[in-house]
Amino acid sequence: MHLAKLKEFRQAAYQYLCRAHDATFELTDAILLTRHVHCLADLSLCPVFRRRWSSIYQALQDCRPARRKLMQIYIKHIPKDIRPILAIDHTSWPRPDAVTLQERTIEHQATDIPGNRPITLGQGYSTIAWVPQSEGSWALPLRHERITSGESPIDKAVWQLQQVSQYLPSRPIVLLDSEYGCAPFVLKTAGIQADKLMRLRSNLCLWGAPPPYSGKGCPRKHGEKFKLNDANTWEEPTETIEIDAPKLGRLRISLWPDKHFQAATNIQMQLIRVERLKNQSGHFAKPL
């Protein structure tokens, strides 16, 4: 049964590779079966790649896969009895020496050298993936596309989430890094049927719900200010629990409802603060 299902999936994916589909399909198998690759020519040594090594470059140059149809095949195999968990991330590929490469952009890249700017020249890619397991690093990319010079990582992520969510069997939970924890992303995804769990930078400010209208003047849009890095501006959390996680130790989780960004007044969020009270070495960790 499982073998027949795998054959059906592979045949369907093969049909949507369009040009150079034979070489591209064998190249995909070679990537899956080759543990260490130092250059593209190494993949030609894999037994499943039955062509000359130059066919690898021809496949990459000529192949134009039907990305939307391939995405629909992947989503078809997502279980329907659980809520899908998606992850979106922006990755930079540094190409500082490729002076003739088209569409190079300024990309963020962390550096360990004090005083160096955390930037590089290269290309940015946006990936939206389905995360099927609670542990481990395996994930299934549903769309992986380059961010052009006319796009921003947020715009690309919003477009990818729109493309994926309309085909999912149920409303997904989307995990996002702090790059997306901002008012523009919240506003642009307000109409998408998805719940978003995003990190926030510690120097941000949120605002509470406004008080009832007093009957005089313009109604207030914001309540009390909530600075994430200033505990003096915090009110008491609505709910606080402490749990013992097997790998992280003792955790304290606090919840504040009805918060919003200043530029996204009508979109209410719940703020969650996760404190790792003590790690395995006995030292306190930075709250999340």
Give a structural overview.
The protein has 288 residues and is α+β, with helices and mostly antiparallel strands. It has 3 domains: 64 residues, no CATH class; 131 residues, no CATH class; 72 residues, no CATH class. The protein is 23% helix and 26% strand. The chain contains 6 helices and 11 strands. The strands form 2 sheets. Strands 1, 2, 3, 4, 5 and 6 form a 6-stranded mixed beta sheet that branches. Strands 7, 8, 9, 10 and 11 form a 5-stranded antiparallel beta sheet that branches. α6 links the parallel β5 and β6. α2 crosses α3. The longest helix is centred in the N-terminal third of the chain and has 14 residues.
Order of helices and strands: HHHHEEEEHEHEEEEEE
Spatial extent as radius of gyration: 23 Å
Question: So how many helices?
Answer: 6
Helix content: 10-25%
Class by alpha and beta content: alpha+beta
Uncertain stretches of 5 or more adjacent residues: none
Q: Notable features of this structure?
A:
288 residues, 3 domains, 6-stranded mixed sheet, 5-stranded antiparallel sheet, 6 helices, 26% strand, elongated
List the helices and strands and how they pair.
Blueprint: H1 2-15, H2 21-33, H3 54-62, H4 67-76, E1 85-94, E2 105-108, E3 119-130, E4 140-147, H5 153-165, E5 173-176, H6 183-188, E6 195-198, E7 205-208, E8 225-227, E9 239-245, E10 249-260, E11 269-276
Parallel strand pairs: 1-5, 5-6
Antiparallel strand pairs: 1-3, 2-3, 3-4, 7-8, 7-10, 9-10, 10-11
Helix pairs in contact: 2-3
